[in-house]
Amino acid sequence: MLDLALHWLPTIAALATAGAVGGVFAGLLGVGGGIVIVPALDFALGVAGIDHDVALHVAVATSMATIIPTAISSSRSHASRDAVDFAVTKRWTVPIVIGALAGSMAASHVNGKVLAAVFGTVALLAALKMLLPLDRVVLRPSLPSGLGGATLPAAIGAISAMMGIGGGTLSVPTMTLCGEPVHKAVGTAAFLGLWIALPATLGYLVAQVPDGRVLPPLTVGYVSLPGFALIAPLSWLAAPLGAKLAHTLDRRLLSAAFGLFLLIVAGRMLYRVLS
Questions:
Q1: Residue of 44, 17, 41, 78 lying closest to 239 (CA atoms)
Q2: CA count, 13 A, side-chain hemisphere, 193
Q3: Does the pLDDT value for residue 223 go beyond 90?
Q4: Within-domain flag for 1
Q5: Which DSSP category does 108 fall into?
Q6: What's the rounded Cα separation, in Å, for the pair 20 and 225?
Q7: Does 195 fall in a domain?
Q8: Whose CB among 46, 55, 154, 183 lies 3.0–4.6 Å from 95's, allowing a Cys bridge?
């Protein structure tokens, strides 16, 4: 029994750390926490002996499920500070839901290298955005409308579902590049994260796992119930702290530090694709 406990201890520690740190970043940057949780959970499952291809699918799906309570907690904190643009959420919710459901269904049918390529590429682009002094760059005065205005959130939902993230990594820079104030963009992204996480989690729960893939115990579809049970409460509790810090800390320094972290994550994921 003691040997079994010691075997799982690093995994439990990694999951607990991922939950707490992911929750803080969810509130701090509107990123849903998944950009932290996915690589940490992928690593923890690898330590536990789960095959790399399966581990990333489970990490993405479980991360998506943990974003549901985190997004609720984070968006409530931002809404109390009047930092959610409900005009944007009204236009983006339906296409983002459709995109998220489609993304989770697509992710369930591809191998781990495809997911690693998607995650690594987006993480690399996000890292460059955070490291470079682009905070005040604006490409257009407002978000696009019409077909383009619907395609954009649908794509954000689909890519986010394939990465196991709440969408803030994509939607925050998109909104700020289209003239949205950064604090409004962060709060709005936190709210939209819920509408990515709900349909994407449903897609991963009902996914038909191909024969031959050995999943961790107590996994439904690709969602690990023990992983969810450990990460979700810590993320929920930590998200309001991140939202509070978002209004007090220097965002340039924060962006640079998080950008460096994303470079490491991107490098690890892209190395997996090439190896």
A1: 78
A2: 43
A3: yes
A4: no
A5: T
A6: 18
A7: yes
A8: 154
Note the residue count of the chain: 275
Q: In a 10 Å sphere around its CB, with 0-12 CB exposed, 13-18 middle and 19+ buried, how is residue 222 labelled?
A: buried
pLDDT tens by residue, 135-147: 677 777 788 888 7
pTM (2 decimals)? 0.84
Q: Answer yes or no: is 2 within a domain.
A: no
As a whole number of angstroms, the distance between CA 68 and CA 232 comes to 8
Show the tokens assigned to 233. Answer: 């409460």
Count of other CB atoms within 10 angstroms of residue 272? 19
Q: Tokens in use for 218? A: 């107590």
Q: How many domains does the chain have?
A: 1
Give how far the C-alpha of residue 5 lies from the chain's centroid of Cα atoms, to the nearest Å: 29
Residue 217: pLDDT band by 50, 70, 90 thresholds? confident
Residue 136 lies in a domain: yes
Domain with 181 in it? 8-274
CA distance 92 to 253: 30
